[in-house]
Amino acid sequence: MSSTLPYVSLMIMGKEYRIAIDAAEQDDLIVSAQQLDVQMRKMRDSGKITGPDRIAVMASLNLAHELQLMKNKNIALNQRMNEYLSRLTSKIDKVLDKD
Fold this sequence. Notes:
This protein is of the alpha+beta class. The protein has helices at 26-46, 52-98, and strands at residues 7-12, 15-20. The chain is elongated and about 70 Å long.
């Protein structure tokens, strides 16, 4: 039995894109497309960047940079959490060893 993915229609800078995607991921894709559309329109409206291809590349680069910053922040938070859990485990072990 072969199953095909449903399509979702996305509008980015006035152009429609049909993307096949799992139904469970459609809402996230729609939000992502809306964010991209907003960023591309801001760039276009600023007049500093011309041409849809150039706007798309710059918007994608900005979003990729934001994603990398969030990944770095996530790594730092995970490290802090692991350090905290390690200290907490040590304290618990010390309390249990006293008995």
